[in-house]
Write a structure and sequence with these properties.
Radius of gyration: 17 Å
Largest sheet: none
Strand content: under 5%
Number of helices: 6
Number of domains: 1
Number of strands: 0
Low-confidence stretches: none
Structural class: mainly alpha
Amino acid sequence: MQMLNRYFAPFALILIISDFIFGEPDPFEFKMSLGILVLSIIVNWWLSRNLYRFSGWTQRIRVLQVWLNYIWAVPLFWLSPLWGPMWLLFVMAPATAAVLMSKWQTLGISLVSALTMLAIYYDRGVFQSPAYGGMVIDHAVFIVIFSLFIHTLAQTALRLRDVNLGHSA
C-alpha cells in the first residue's frame, strides 16, 4: 500500500498546487486541502507501515485504506470542483481497489466514486450546460472502466505469476 503515498500523494499535491496557482481558490480552502492531503499521507503511511503487525486484519485494513482514500477525495474535490483535473482524485480509490479487491468490490467503489463526483458537479450547476454535463458523465464512465481495466490487468499478472511459479517447481 506504499504505492498510495509513492504515486497518488504527489499527484494529489500537484493537483492542489496547480489549483492554487492557476485556479485561484480561496487561501483558506488551499490550506484545508493541504491539511487533508497531509492527514491522508500520514494515515496511509501508518496503516501501510503497521499492516503486518495486524496480520489478521490485513484485508480489512486494505479495505479501510481504499474507503479512506475515497473519503479524502470528497472534500479535496469539493474545495475546488471547478479546477478541471480535480476529478482525477476520484480515480485513486477505485484504482487501488482494483489491485486489492474483487471485481464486484472494485465496481462498487468505482460507482460510488463516480456518482459522488457527479452529485457534486450537479450541486455546482455543471449540468446546466449540456457540453459540460456530457464531459463530466464521460469522466464518471472513465472512473468505472479504468478501475475495471486495472483490476483485469492485476488479475492477469497474478495468473501469469502463478503459472510461472507452477513451472519452476
